[in-house]
Write a structure and sequence with these properties.
Blueprint lengths: L4 H21 L11 H8 L10 H12 L21 H13 L10 H18 L6 E3 L7 H5 L4 H4 L7 E5 L5 H9 L6 E3 L10 H10 L4 E7 L11 H10 L3 E5 L24 E5 L11 E5 L2 H8 L24 H29 L18
Parallel strand pairs: 2-3, 2-4, 4-5, 5-6
Antiparallel strand pairs: 1-7, 6-7
The chain binds pyridoxal-5'-phosphate.
The site of pyridoxal-5'-phosphate has 11 residues, from loops.
Length: about 375
């Protein structure tokens, strides 16, 4: 590996120039792909060369061969899915993240990434109205505490042979199934509860479902600002019902948790802080590059127990204040940069302005999808 700095310069310069051309012409270029699948395949599917190429040639080739297949989703004329562009500070920090190439898994291997992570988590909790005592992570994974309470050591024993878990769901997104499969809970254990006319779970329906199987380990999955209906569950009414039955309450706040940043709209989230865990992401409202998702858990010890790397990794020096590595990743400096560039007031203005625009345009009053319609991805 040539770490001679001049060796990087030509390739980085081609990337820099190409990125600028892309961003500066985005608003005048066609939004959809203009190249066909066969064109892209024929350009990109070259035989693997026997000899290496100059780095700048590799980057130049990449730019040329992908032309017509880069969708203008980062621009203002893209109205398909909820994907967006990244703001300048986040994009620039993303480049630096690649250049620094940190193993951000623990303090010893990247002290600045560890501290940027701490700071980004604290700021996010502040903006989103999540209790300061909650833990945070940049991956999803909020389920483990439930089984511990049933006397099952899930860290040690896994889910095989564990008491069954069921998920009582409000209006849920298609990604929930994927998460449930990944966790090994199994889709068959998700129960879609009957919703009211505003696509919200009701205390009566939830109470009936919980009473019908009082011994089942249950996760109640609530919604904040569903993609299709915009619905927010009535947290004040339903969370106490779930808690009375010993359930774990998780809030999918991919879209709506950000309303907490707006004094005008945070009433939609009244009572949400009483949940046990929350998830949202940064690539929608915060406009950071993909991938960027956040989970918060009210019981840090349970979260830490599930996600820590354990003693075998701790031959590497752990900082006494940050402890063993857990839940770490490489995008914290960019997230911190994005939050910093935005600042509290701009975040509040941004979220509030966009929500107001969506109300005025009627987007907030879209009809509910017909019963039984497939759940959509982003
Ligand atoms: C309600 C809801 N939950 C979860 C997701 C998945 O979020 P991500 O794209 O961060 O994986 C989405 C995406 O649109 C969503 O709308």
């Amino acid at each position: 590996m040539d770490h001679n700095a001049p060796a990087f310069k030509p390739a980085l310069q081609v990337a820099f120039q190409s990125a600028l051309v892309h961003l500066e012409t985005l608003e005048n270029q066609p939004v959809p792909a203009t190249a066909s699948l066969s064109e892209l395949r024929s350009r990109l599917a070259k035989p693997l060369n026997d000899h290496g190429l100059d780095p700048q040639e590799v980057v130049r080739d990449l730019v040329r061969d992908t032309q017509g297949g880069i969708v203008g989703s980062a621009g203002g004329r893209f109205f398909a899915w909820a994907v967006g562009g990244s703001v300048p500070a986040a994009l620039a920090a993303d480049w630096l993240t690649s250049a620094w190439d940190q193993n951000a898994g623990l303090y010893a291997s990247s002290p600045s990434a560890a501290v940027a992570e701490e700071v980004a988590g604290v700021w996010l909790k502040d903006l989103l109205g999540i209790p300061a005592s909650a833990s945070f992570a940049f991956v999803s994974g909020c389920q483990m505490a439930l089984l511990q309470e049933r006397g099952w050591d899930v860290e040690r024993n896994g889910l095989c042979g564990a008491p069954p878990i069921r998920v009582l769901a409000s209006n849920r997104h298609g990604s929930v199934e994927r998460a449930i499969r990944l966790l090994g809970i199994g889709e068959a254990n998700v129960v879609d509860l009957e919703l009211d006319d505003n696509a919200r779970i009701t205390p009566a329906v939830l109470s009936a479902a919980l009473t019908a199987a009082p011994d089942a380990a249950t996760i109640v999955l609530l919604q904040a600002g569903d993609l299709n209906s915009g619905s927010f569950d009535d947290y004040r009414a339903v969370i106490p019902v779930a808690k009375r039955h010993g359930s774990w309450v998780h809030v999918d706040g991919a879209f709506g948790l950000w309303a907490a940043a707006s004094p005008r709209y945070r009433h939609f989230l009244d009572g949400v802080a009483e949940a046990d865990s929350w998830a949202t992401d940064g690539h929608k409202w915060l406009n950071v590059p993909y991938d960027s998702g956040y989970a918060f858990v009210i019981r840090p010890e349970a979260h830490r127990a599930a996600m820590s790397a354990g003693p075998r990794l701790c031959h590497l020096r752990c900082h006494p204040a940050t402890g063993p590595p857990w839940d770490s990743g490489n995008d914290r400096p960019l997230l911190r940069a994005r939050e910093n560039a935005c600042g509290r007031n701009r975040a509040i203005g941004w979220v509030g302005g966009a929500l107001a625009a969506s109300h005025q345009s009627g987007a907030g009053a879209l009809p509910r999808p017909p019963a039984g319609s497939p759940r959509r991805g982003p």
